[in-house]
Amino acid sequence: MLLITCPYCCTARPESEFRYSGEAHIARPLEPATVSDDDWAAFLYMRTNPKGLHAERWRHIHGCGRFFNALRNTVTDQILKTYPAGTPRPGLGAPAEGGR
Amino acid sequence: MRFSLFSLARQALGGHARWPAQWRSPEPKAAYDAVIVGGGGHGLGTAYYLAKEHGLRNIAVVEKGWLGGGNTGRNTTIIRSNYLWEESEAIYELSVKLWETLSDELNYNVMYSPRGVMMLAHTIHDIQVFKRHVHANRLAGIDNEWLTPEAAKDFCPPLNISPKLRYPVLGAALQRRGGTARHDAVAWGYARAASALGVDIIENAEVTAIRRDASGAVEGVETTRGVIKAKKVGVVAAGHTSVLMGMAGVRMPLESYPLQALVSEPVKPVLPCVVMSNTVHAYVSQSDKGELVIGAGTDVYTSYSQTGGLHVSAHTLDAICDLFPTFRRMRMMRNWGGIVDVTPDRSPIIGLTPVPGLYVNCGWGTGGFKATPGSAFVFAATMAHGEPHPIAAPFSLERFTTGRLIDEAAAAAVAH
Ligand SMILES: Cc1cc2nc3c(=O)[nH]c(=O)nc-3n(C[C@H](O)[C@H](O)[C@H](O)COP(=O)(O)OP(=O)(O)OC[C@H]3O[C@@H](n4cnc5c(N)ncnc54)[C@H](O)[C@@H]3O)c2cc1C
Asked: Looking at the domain assignment, is residue A69 inside a domain?
């Protein structure tokens, strides 16, 4: 069970209070009608899935209810940092192995 | 050397001290016609069928650890073919047919045991979904039948069908030809048969880069045991597929999650079949050693940690104790995790990639052991001819662009 610090509630809570919501920083196309099939596939389905640092969304579903992002090492499961949704990925740690 | 009653008797007289190694462990050559990355059941099977069916014998399987040390040796070995969509029915049924004769084909006992797979329904939604599967399967000529709770208990006496359960058993879908097989034996059997046909099996060699020439086509792989050239490379690396494909610059529609299993202390035969429940999340069968083999869930987040949270296993044990009150006092001996590669539609990806010469067979996620022979068979044909085998064709990487998904996810969030 992970201990996750919600950046809004500023306290570490057990993973069961949260819902995982997949890779972070994937921007929905602003003009859907002009998007090619390849770009839709990239947006909807292609994922970095790194072995190493992963920027991911979580939602404090049984707390404040808000979305935020976390930077986690997928080999050790250690969370390096959590940060509010909408802010850029912190420049921490070495880049991940493989998966661009 | 062939296994037979005669060879067994002769080795017994020699005190079983002279059994030869089951496969060769050669040094890697500088170049092969094809290289398979990943020495699990799917990769070793692919090499076997490439050699046997397509006459490609100058090939190698490159494995970073030991054979079957990935998901092949970590899974709960449930085999069935009662999937919903025609594309899935074709590949899983091909697999079941191959399982039926695999021990003879390989001259190696893979202990395929068609003891029946029973999937429990606990809600009206389950009943509707399973009956739909039963009808779809019947149209495809695949056995799958509907059982009342009483008939389910007749088939599996320790099952608790009390209406007082939080999620009572309202019925079950039974595939009698479904069952289990011995996971390690599948890897070893394919390795032994492939090695006998001339395939080089190279363990303890991790692929660290995929080389491409000026045109972008595959040229070979770099491994911890040196560079190996090959114009055809097949990536069959389950949970590590994104990492390997990333080495060739290809992004994949995959996420890797830890999936757990556990086994109990061994007891006398008590559970005659495989029982699965997607709704309360429990999967259980009994091994020939007598252990209950229990499948738990995945963690909610992606990870390469090969462990998984304890609360995930505990949740499954809650469900097992409700369904089988007699198991409540049993002790669990070991638990472990494997990293499963999950696709958005919970169907595999088998075929060509945007990189010429690079092939991929992945996305089997939580349920690919059952498909090992069929997957290997169609992937070998795909690699040999450079175009998808008809049964593999719908499982192309392009389906995520065309939108022709094969959505088995709707049927079961975790489908073993
Ligand atoms: C706990 C658990 C329970 C399961 N239960 C079932 C079930 O009941 N029924 C079912 O049908 N399926 C089940 N599955 C799924 C099933 O195990 C897999 O789909 C299947 O075994 C995948 O086989 P594979 O040969 O593709 O992968 P693997 O056996 O994982 O083989 C891939 C190999 O690639 C190697 N590799 C990775 N990276 C590299 C590299 N860079 N260089 C060289 N080699 C590399 C790995 O070491 C590994 O040996 C379960 C899985 C788990 C984890």
From this structure: yes
DSSP state of A51: B
Domain for residue A46, yes or no? yes
- Helix or strand holding residue A37 (H, E): helix A37-44
A91: pLDDT confidence band, cut at 50, 70 and 90? confident
- pLDDT tens, position by position, B42-95: 999 999 999 999 999 999 999 999 999 999 999 999 999 999 999 999 999 999
Q: From chain A, which residues contact B within 8 Å (Cβ)?
A: 1-2, 15-16, 19-20, 22, 37-38, 40-42, 44-51, 54, 56, 72, 74-77, 97-100
Contact A2 B305 (CB under 8 A): no
The pTM (predicted TM-score) of the whole model is 0.96
Q: Whole domain around residue A66: which residue ranges? A: 3-27+37-84
Residue A54 lies in a domain: yes
The domain tally of chain A equals: 1
Question: Residue A61: which CATH number?
Answer: 3.30.2270.10
Partners of B362 on chain A (C-beta within 8 Å) are none
Kindly identify which residue of chain B lies nearest to residue A76, measuring between CA atoms. Answer: B305
Check CB contact under 8 Å for B243 and A75: no
Which residues in chain B have their CB less than 8 angstroms from residue A41's CB?
253, 400-401
A67 domain-assigned: yes
Task: Count the Cβ atoms, other than its own, within 10 Å of residue B74.
Answer: 21
